């Protein structure tokens, strides 16, 4: 990843397993703790940011906010990353990172059980805090000054896999992006997924991109495109030492040049998998083109007729 010499690096959240201080020291600062060799999260030449994930919230978020964030942000900012949401802007593009994790943790233990965690008041619904919405209204002002927009979050808006969809944030964002298409990159699910333009349950219309395959073993599963319009996914697998079959890890580099956002998807061996370009138009509109160089990423299997 660092071979690309990025200006900024952005982590989409989840410091395993509970985001406590020793785990942040081990997985972000490269300190050997808990009997394991540490790894250091790489910073870009201009700085680095990290989103809040549900695993950080298992420790009530305190180590994330008080230990990790002060080490991040733009290099010239001595205060570090001051919040779990932020905005980066160019003349034609706006990158908006939101915190879906703050309200992602429901009732302990019960909220981790599939099906049960979808019951209201049991699992968290990932709704956006009022402070974040006020910041969007009064500081970012995307409705008064629309631009081509790249959204970043930890949790998925929708999915073609077995995981849960979290549509509440997308509904709240209708206040700011109604009638505008945006690119939305999320993590949480341990896989890579590229979706066709889609909206769900009255939420905003987005080009959804799941990039949850950065570090943990990647989940293997068969997609169901009746849930969400999956365009490409990575079906490749390999075996861990214990013979468990897992998918391929990877990352994406985002480059903004004028009105064009280029997303270059790579696997852990730095093999190029897909290149997308989103071109900004009037009022934040988007035109999307892509190149799938070697056909590694595949469309989902067709449903039997």
From TrEMBL:
SUPFAM superfamilies: Metallo-dependent phosphatases. InterPro entries: Calcineurin-like_PHP, Metallo-depent_PP-like. Residues 5-191 form the Calcineurin-like phosphoesterase domain. Coiled coil: none annotated. It comes from the Bacteria. Pfam families: Metallophos. One of its GO terms (molecular function) is hydrolase activity. This is Metallophosphoesterase. It comes from Candidatus Acidiferrum panamense. The lineage of its organism: Bacteria, Pseudomonadati, Acidobacteriota, Terriglobia, Candidatus Acidiferrales.
């Amino acid at each position: 990843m660092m071979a690309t010499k990025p200006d900024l690096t952005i982590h989409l959240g989840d410091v395993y397993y509970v985001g406590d201080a020793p785990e942040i020291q081990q997985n972000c600062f490269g300190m050997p703790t808990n009997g394991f060799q540490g790894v250091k999260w790489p910073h870009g030449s201009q700085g680095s940011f990290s989103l809040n994930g549900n695993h950080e919230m298992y420790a009530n978020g305190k180590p994330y906010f008080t230990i990790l964030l002060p080490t991040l942000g733009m290099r010239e900012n001595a205060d570090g990353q001051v919040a779990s949401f932020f905005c980066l802007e160019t003349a034609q593009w706006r990158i908006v990172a939101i915190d879906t994790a703050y309200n992602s943790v429901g009732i302990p233990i019960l909220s981790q059980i599939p099906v049960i965690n979808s019951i209201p008041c049991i699992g968290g619904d990932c709704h956006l805090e009022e402070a974040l919405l006020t910041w969007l209204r009064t500081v970012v002002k995307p409705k008064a000054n629309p631009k081509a927009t790249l959204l970043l979050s930890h949790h998925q808006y929708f999915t073609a896999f077995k995981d849960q969809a979290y549509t509440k944030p997308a509904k709240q964002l209708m206040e700011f992006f109604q009638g505008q298409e945006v690119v939305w990159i999320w993590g949480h699910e341990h896989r890579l997924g590229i979706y066709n333009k889609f909206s769900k349950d009255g939420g905003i219309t987005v080009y959804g991109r799941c990039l949850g395959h950065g570090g943990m073993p990647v989940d293997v599963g068969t997609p169901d495109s009746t849930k969400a319009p999956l365009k490409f996914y990575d079906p490749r697998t390999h075996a861990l030492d214990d013979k468990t079959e897992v998918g391929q890890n990877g990352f994406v580099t985002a480059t903004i040049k004028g009105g064009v956002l280029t997303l270059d998807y790579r696997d852990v061996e730095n093999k190029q998998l897909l290149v997308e370009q989103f071109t900004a138009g009037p009022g934040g509109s988007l035109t999307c083109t892509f190149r799938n160089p070697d056909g590694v990423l595949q469309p989902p299997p067709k449903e039997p007729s």
